[in-house]
Amino acid sequence: MVYDRMMWLVRSFRREMNAMKQHEKFDHKVLHTHRFPRSSKYELEWMLANEMGPNALWLTEELSKYVALEDGFRVLDMGCGRAMTSIFWAKEFDVNVFAADLWISADDNWQRVEEAGCSRSVFPLRVEARNLPFATGFFDTIVSVDSYQYYGTDDLYLGYITRFLKDGGQLGLVMPAMMREFETPPEHLTRKRASGTAFWDPTECWCMHTLEWWQRHFERSGLVEIESAEYIEDGWKLWRDWELIRNGGGFTGFPSEAAVLEEDAGENIGFVLLVVKKRPHSRGRFDHSLTIRL
Length: 294
Ligand SMILES: C[S@@+](CC[C@H](N)C(=O)[O-])C[C@H]1O[C@@H](n2cnc3c(N)ncnc32)[C@H](O)[C@@H]1O
Hints:
By secondary structure, the chain is an alpha/beta fold. The chain has a single domain, classed as Rossmann fold (3-Layer(aba) Sandwich). Helix content is 34%, strand content 20%. It contains eleven helices and nine strands. The protein is globular. It starts with a helix and ends with a strand.
């Protein structure tokens, strides 16, 4: 029993070390410059210092290929984390971005925004996604990267968030996702790593869903028209590559997911990308902030 446990620990440790050793192959400047020319302009150190999971700039650049932005648009970046994505939208597309997040304070993000030279175009605020302080129809566009899954699975939420969008405005999302629905997660996702944690945390990971799940979730509300809905091509590789870069960068904030993603090879885990357009005059009748039906 003790021997088995020791061998298991050695095997997990080796698996993680092997994945980490590969990081030398994953210089982001070389690997993803072609696919993500905009993101490649940003300093790797800055991205590593401010990341909160998969590479937010790559995912945002992918999303930007599907969202139609015009100069001066008012954009809500919901769940912006450390506001890297908000800075990216403002710099790359000349839009004004309200950088809204719960876990990261406005002070923290404001410092980053000023350092990035975006104090006239990015406005940080700390808010709960279900209690937004904006006027109806205020935003031209709403975007969210690696965040919407935390609150957007609520059947009533689409009606709430699109209230702040003008008629015909786009809501663009990228989220970690299941590539297929399962009742029991595969063993490699729940296996504990040397760090003692597993990739699959059942208190959190069930908010991930398949593309079909999200399409149905949005379509049946009647509030929006789906413009784009797809799995990001090689999404799992992008996530794995970023994990390898993080390992090489010495970041220690979260346990590495590289080995698990490598083993999964996109069978179960990837990213969905959805862009939906608000139908004219559509309006959710449930206001989360007041918890009343209007
Ligand atoms: C995994 S982090 C991603 C941050 C950022 N989008 C990025 O990709 O770097 C998820 C973010 O969602 C935000 N979030 C989660 N639940 C939220 C809620 N109920 N209201 C507002 N923000 C929320 C958190 O504050 C956190 O910054």
